[in-house]
Amino acid sequence: MIKEVSLGGSNEFDIRLILYYLALISIGLITIFSTSYNPAAENFFSMSNAYTRQLVFIGTSLIIAIVILLIKGQYYSFLAYPIYLFCLFLMILVLFFGTEISGAHAWIKIGNFSIQPTEFCKFGTALALAKFFSEGKTLQEKKNTWLAAFCIILAPVFIIMLQKDTGSALVFLSFIFLFYRIGLTGWILVVGAVSVTLFLITLYWNEIYAIALITTVFIGFWIWNRRDKKKLIRNAIIYGLALMFIAIADIGYSKVLQSHQKMRIDTLLGIVNDPQGADYNLNQSKIAIGSGGWTGKGYRSGTQTKLNFVPEQHTDFIFCGIGEEWGFLGSLTICLLFLGLVLRILRLSERQRDPFVKYYGYGIAGIFFFHFFINIGMTIGLLPIIGIPLPLISYGGSSLWAFTIMLFVFVKLDYR
């Protein structure tokens, strides 16, 4: 059994979290090397190589991790709101001075590198929510707690939508894990399930079918509760909100989502068939993962990835390279590492006496799990392709730095 390592005094850094981190970034580096190495390249360590740049990102990430561990943990609580506001400020700057990459106007270009402030805003939002929920509140303040907490989330989401980066905006749904830990009612799950159902019916058929469904349900509840005036009023309000949601869903799908995003949803639902267009990424992804079998084709022996059949194979679709080269067993190992990381964060969060640390832990656990679940789900065809990285594994400096900061701030807070 692995024990935590003592680094002086009576406190300890959690070595398991650090080992999970080191394992995942190492797997990411060797996979990026495998999928992007070109034997014809003139210089093995040229900065034009993706694996060389990733090696630089990993080196700087380790420096960031060490610096975080040297800073007093109390500062993170004290600076929670300023960090959150600074992240929002950077995202607003992107709207005016940003660079468009893959359809999203969400990047700030500095020389040959690009930084995506959205990745760091997830960390800032986790800090702000932890600070907000850990503060003592009067009875009157508690009545407005949920509204204020949702506003903390909606502010970055609104800016991200202006950047046309829908995938990153969806990641902020991960804070639902934290909200449930605080005590959000379970009815929100019912509302979410009904909303998804109405949205899918609206897309797959049209809004008339969705309206017919909820009208039938409303009439049934009206007959059942016809003698209870309060319930009739409540049902009428819910019916009205459902109609509004259908209208918003239809307008949002038509006006907010970009054409390639709508096409990805349509192909996933089977509304359209486009094997050489929107379906191409997914089909190649499933071919690569399926061809790996149980044990894989071997390191740097994946034909789908080596021949560049899989687009974005060292970024959003890096899991394809793992599945093809290491097979089911390698893919399962990745899943177990991520689940181990998330469960370890949750376990450490539960033992905290400081509510700020507890809530921050739940916030980042949700972010890690959401990224992991969505990324793998989209590569195997269970979810639409929304373009979010696999934490600590996918190529990219912004993502790696942001997840490093998230994790090692928690390691430091747990040490405190």
Would you mind describing this structure in some detail?
With 416 residues, this protein is mostly helical. It has two domains: 15-193 and 261-414, no CATH class; 194-259. Helix content is 70%, strand content 4%. The protein has helices at residues 15-36, 50-70, 74-78, 80-97, 117-134, 139-143, 145-162, 166-171, 176-182, 187-204, 207-224, 229-256, 259-269, 278-291, 303-306, 318-350, 355-379, 397-415, and strands spanning 5-6, 12-13, 99-101, 104-110, 113-115. 38% of the residues are buried. Residues 1-10 have low confidence and may be disordered.
Features:
416 residues, mainly alpha, three-stranded antiparallel β-sheet, two-stranded antiparallel ribbon
Strand order of the largest sheet: 3-4-5
The overall average pLDDT, rounded, is 80
Beta-strand fraction estimate: under 5%
Number of helices: 18
CA radius of gyration: 23 Å
Q: What's the count of strands?
A: 5
Broad shape:
globular
- Which class do the helix and strand fractions yield? mainly alpha
